Structure formats: structure tokens, C-alpha cells
């Protein structure tokens, strides 16, 4: 189970470290080519989403090897499920039907939840 957890959680955490880091530090203009939805939200909300993504990635990576707050990995994976449900809603509201990345992240996060509980 531990190997399965890392196969899913490792890339998921790396994705969110990168994407969240970009949202946390880049300007709206720099984010717009990758994330058209940034025009629909206040920049403070974009920064907050970035911070949540980075913290969630840390929550996936640190608890299993350290044994500190082991529940945090499950909470982080569940948080990413909720985050992607919200992201899909935003994309649909904007008329954006390209949801493959969001659906993939949702599935991986959902599959990571039970594995985090036993790793």
C-alpha cells in the first residue's frame, strides 16, 4: 500500500507544488495564458488557492515518512478532491469544457485518500 500511495501522491504533490507556487507568486498577466479563469477571481483569491495547493502538497509529502499528524495526508487528498470539484464548477460556469486535467486530478486525489489512511 505504501508504494501505491507514493505512486499516486508523489506526482500529485509535485503538480500542486508547481501550480500552487505559480499562483502564489506570478502576476495575473503571467498566469492568464495558462489559467484563463484568473480574470474571474480577485487576485487575493488566486493567491489563496495557490497557498492552499502548496500546503496540501506538503500535507501529502511530510506526514507519511515522519509519522507526524498521519491524518494530514488523508485530509490533504480529500481537500484536493474538493478543490477540483470547485475548479470544475468554475470551468463549467465559464463555458470551458476542457476538463480532462481537472478530472484526472480529481480521480488521482480520490484514489489517494484511502491509501493515505493506511500508509
Structure in a nutshell:
Helices cover 78% and strands 0% of the residues. The chain has 6 helices and no strands.
Q: Overview of this structure, please?
A:
It is a single chain. The chain is mainly α. It has one domain. Helix content is 78%, strand content 0%. The protein contains six helices and no strands. The chain is globular, with a radius of gyration of 14 Å. The mean pLDDT is 95.
Layout of strands and helices, then pairs:
Blueprint: H1 2-25, H2 28-31, H3 43-61, H4 63-66, H5 71-93, H6 100-118
Number of helices: 6
Instruction: Tally the structural domains.
Output: 1
Q: Outline the biggest β-sheet.
A: none
Write down the secondary-structure element order.
HHHHHH
Number of strands: 0
Amino-to-carboxy terminus distance = 6 Å
The structural class is: mainly alpha
Q: Poorly predicted ranges (pLDDT <50, ≥5 residues)?
A: none
Question: What does the overall shape look like?
Answer: globular
Give helix % range.
over 70%
User: What amount of the residues lies in strands?
Assistant: under 5%
Q: Report the C-alpha radius of gyration, rounded.
A: 14 Å
Mean pLDDT: 95
Amino acid at each position: 500500500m505504501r508504494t501505491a500511495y507514493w505512486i499516486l501522491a508523489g506526482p500529485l504533490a509535485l503538480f500542486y507544488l508547481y501550480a500552487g507556487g505559480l499562483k502564489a507568486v506570478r502576476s495575473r498577466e503571467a498566469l492568464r495564458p495558462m489559467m484563463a479563469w484568473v480574470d474571474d477571481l480577485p487576485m487575493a483569491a488566486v493567491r489563496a488557492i495557490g497557498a492552499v495547493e502548496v500546503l496540501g502538497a506538503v500535507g501529502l509529502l511530510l506526514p507519511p515518512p515522519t509519522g507526524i499528524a498521519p491524518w494530514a495526508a488523508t485530509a490533504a487528498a480529500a481537500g484536493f478532491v474538493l478543490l477540483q470539484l470547485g475548479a470544475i464548477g468554475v470551468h463549467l460556469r465559464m463555458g470551458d469544457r476542457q476538463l480532462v486535467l481537472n478530472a484526472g486530478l480529481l480521480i488521482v486525489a480520490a484514489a489517494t485518500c484511502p491509501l493515505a489512511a493506511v500508509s
